[in-house]
Design brief:
By secondary structure, the chain is mainly beta. It is built from two helices and 60 strands. The strands form 17 sheets. Strands 17, 18, 20, 25, 26, 27, 28, 30 and 41 form a nine-stranded antiparallel sheet that branches. Strands 19-29-21-22-23-24 form a six-stranded antiparallel sheet. The longest helix is centred in the first third of the chain and has 4 residues.
Length: 784
């Protein structure tokens, strides 16, 4: 049977039943695993937990996974699992999940997420997104959007606030920064009249804040004993000269019982006012973006949407029927002891939409008994009823979804959707993004591409701009111009990245018609990404990888942390090799210097035997690094809190040269002793906290970090051979001794009842019947 080294012994003391002290041991039988450990650790057979890790298999709930045969672990944020899963699956791009999630949730409009996200990121100002977006799209030229806006959130050009109050009340003023300022008990009408009888929607957007003093130095940290700061947006002001409060209005109030956002005197308000709460606005003295959508229908004026920083405020539409058909002015008022500010004010009175149709086609298939006259839902077999649907989109032929992205040393890739049924090809231009493509006489032709398939998406495999990428922060525009049958450019169907197309055709792309000012015709274009990598390796003292260390990075400017890119703007976790790669990808016009400076910090917290958090120490605790654009910098940290346990899992009793020539596998990097790794073997560790974790085994070797003085247990998972899931469900057979033709085939290895089974060779017909005495000797559960 199994032969154990002297270090192995059984602890037969009181209360130790079922526990084995496992030192270095080796099973001398041919073909059996050999486990070598550098230290003695306690092996728990599961009797105290009610689970045998060798024979049982736990079924985990949704949001969990089977970390071991006996232990379920919670899925981390950004991943999910169904019931009974062995591992967690990262969320797809455009979705997110918190910890212990059974599924991922689509990001709301105005946000986006990469794959594996735990939260959705708000789209920055000047961009927008729809539901489930993996990235944000830039607004067309002449329109813009506040942060966190959906795909219907294009904003018209800003209103000049100083001009808007020239004919208005003297109770408001405009600061040197162009911000509207209202002080205590001041009302102000803007010269923005609205006649409340229109088609479509009126979108009003602005940023606002309210303060105790003019310089806004005192933050509001919670509910106040008074109601200040307190100010109002008033859409129905009767005249330009009005200075008092005119309801209905929408407000922020700091009163203890009504802290947050609310409205007053709308038709369907309760007791004259409705309080909605803070809606994630923690401090009203900071700038917050308001977006309101008005409509007229059924002889009433409706407020259909109100968002603050992209968060819905309204519980339902508000109405004010008395205003229908009248003309009023938009305006504001500040309450006593409040300094209210407004900036970025704009209105959008109508939408001009690209002609596009969306049709859904569905086919339902039912199966009914033979001879059925009418196969309806009452007779059809529900198990065999299948519905399949698809969606068809119709565009006007302008290239859509033009998306440049940085590929590092390979330049900038450009992908777009071909929506034309007549274009024979496309020309790709690079132009100055500060001017419209149609007026840029210096636009450079990069490539001409032929195509004949409508709906084809051209991606980086088809086209890369290798002339761009070495100058980070540079703004570049890309234009895709279709070609007709004669090879001539169809310029009124040209599409550009990040803005409107070349011509003024309203049928090419969706635009906004602003009621305030004419739109600009320029676009910000694509900003060449600053592209670099920081590779970090974390090892324990004495060597060996440390897993699950959080690595964070901050950008440095003049040896101080850049407030726009603070510590943690890029993070990563070390893998089973103790390595983490931080991809620094920044689109910022201020990042023009080829060499950028960063500060890297590492941190990790573990549980000790008393379930108390242990904060790991590292040497050095942080490191300032320089990284070149398109380059990579590497640095190593040492975890001074942990040591390394390492060992091997290998076949015993067989010469390693039998399995592979020239001894490719050794028991350690500095050893010449050959071994033959056991493919598919799994090693687990039970930490002092009770957590079960799988230890990565590579070429038969494993290593894992443990806290100093931490008592742990290492054990082998149940092993059936490569590709075998359970007893003889699948036969994995190969000759294990080619010199002896009388021996049978290797099928399964079993580890029953906490000990290794003795392995013998049996000839005859293969069988999985453990009671078949003709195949298995008496006392044996499985055979080779």
């Amino acid at each position: 049977g199994a032969e154990f080294a002297a270090a192995g012994q059984v602890d037969e003391s009181e209360g130790a039943a079922g526990r084995w002290w496992l030192g270095p041991w080796r099973n001398k039988m041919r073909g059996a695993p050999d486990v070598g450990l550098k230290d003695q650790r306690r092996l728990d057979d599961g009797t105290t937990t009610g689970c045998n890790p060798f024979n049982d298999k736990v079924t985990c709930a949704a949001g969990e996974y089977a970390a071991t045969h006996c232990e379920c672990e919670t899925c981390s944020a950004g991943t999910y699992s169904a019931e009974g899963a062995d591992e967690c699956t990262p969320c797809d791009a455009g979705t997110y999940a918190g910890a212990a999630a059974g599924s991922c949730t689509s990001c709301p409009a105005g946000t986006y997420a990469a794959a594996g996200a735990d939260l959705c990121t708000t789209c920055p100002a000047g961009t927008y997104s729809g539901v489930g977006a993996s990235s944000c799209t830039q607004c067309d030229a002449g329109s813009f959007s506040a942060a966190g806006q959906g795909d219907d959130a294009f904003r018209g050009a800003e209103i000049n606030l100083e001009a808007a109050i020239e004919s208005s009340s003297s109770e408001c003023s405009v600061t040197g920064d162009g911000e509207l300022l209202l002080t205590g008990n001041d009302g102000c009408s803007l010269d923005v009249p609205v006649t409340w009888d229109f088609e479509g929607s009126l979108v009003v957007e602005f940023e606002t804040r309210g303060c105790y003093e003019a310089d806004c130095t005192t933050p509001v940290t919670g509910q106040q004993s008074s109601i200040t700061p307190h100010w109002f947006f008033e859409p129905f002001r009767s005249s330009l000269g009005s200075t008092g409060r005119e309801t209905p209005d929408l407000w922020w109030i700091s009163d203890g019982g009504r802290y947050g956002l609310g409205d007053y005197q709308w038709d369907n308000s309760v007791a004259g006012q409705t309080w909605y709460g803070p809606a994630d606005v923690a401090d009203p003295t900071q700038w917050h973006t308001w977006r309101l959508v008005f409509a007229t229908r059924n002889n009433c004026v409706y407020l259909d949407a109100w968002t603050v920083d992209g968060v819905d405020v309204l519980t339902s539409s508000r109405s004010y029927c008395s205003a229908f058909g009248t003309t009023t002015y938009l305006g504001f008022m500040a309450y006593s002891n409040t300094y209210a500010y407004v900036r970025g004010f704009s209105t959008t009175s109508s939408f001009e939409v690209l002609p596009i149709s969306k049709q859904s086609y569905c086919v339902e298939t039912k199966f009914c008994p033979s001879g059925t006259a009418v196969c309806d839902a009452t007779l059809a077999d529900p198990a065999l009823t299948v519905t399949r649907c698809t969606t068809g989109l119709q565009y006007d032929g302008t290239p859509a979804d033009i998306f440049p992205r940085m590929l590092g040393n390979e330049g900038v890739s450009i992908s777009w959707l071909d929506t034309s049924t007549v274009a024979t090809g496309y020309r790709v231009y690079k132009y100055d993004a500060s001017v419209p493509f149609a007026t840029d006489t210096s636009a450079r032709l990069l490539k001409e591409i032929s195509t004949s398939a409508c709906g084809l998406t051209h991606n980086y495999i088809d086209f890369r701009d290798v002339t761009t990428g070495s100058e980070p922060g540079l703004q570049v525009g890309y234009a895709i111009v279709p070609l007709d049958d004669a090879g001539k450019e169809v310029k009124d169907k040209a599409g550009v990245s990040g803005g409107s197309s070349a011509s003024l055709s309203s049928e090419r792309r969706r635009r906004l018609s602003s009621s305030s000012a004419s739109a600009s015709s320029t676009t910000s274009g694509f900003i060449v990404t600053w592209f670099g990598d920081i590779r970090v390796k974390v090892e324990a003292e004495g060597g060996g990888p440390v897993e699950d260390v959080t690595v964070k990075v901050a950008h440095l400017v003049n040896n101080a942390i850049d407030q726009n890119y603070q510590m943690g703007f890029v993070t990563a976790q070390t893998d089973e090799y103790g390595e983490a790669l931080l991809n620094i990808r920044v689109e910022d016009t201020s990042w023009t210097t080829l060499t950028q400076h960063f500060r890297v910090e590492v941190e990790k917290t573990s549980k000790n035997a008393n379930n108390v958090d242990v904060i790991h120490g590292f040497s050095p605790p942080s490191k300032d690094l320089s990284v070149k654009h398109l380059g990579e910098t590497t640095f190593e940290f040492t975890d001074t809190t942990v040591n390394i346990i390492s060992g091997t899992v290998s076949h015993a009793g067989l010469d390693a040269n039998y399995f592979a020539a020239d001894c490719p596998h050794t028991k350690s990097e500095d050893s010449s002793e050959c071994m033959c790794p056991v493919d598919g073997a799994k090693v687990f560790i039970i930490r002092a906290s009770g957590d079960h974790e799988e230890v990565t085994v590579n070429d038969g070797r494993f290593a894992t970090a443990v806290l100093e003085d931490e008592q742990v247990t290492l054990y082998l998972g149940r092993y059936y051979g490569v590709g075998v899931n359970s007893d003889c469900e699948k036969v994995e057979s190969r000759d294990y001794d080619p010199d002896d033709s009388s021996l049978g085939k290797l099928h399964c290895i079993e580890l029953p009842d906490k000990s290794l089974v003795d392995v013998v060779a049996v000839t005859g017909t293969p069988t999985c019947d453990h009671t078949d005495v003709n195949s298995c000797p008496a006392g044996y559960d499985i055979w080779v």
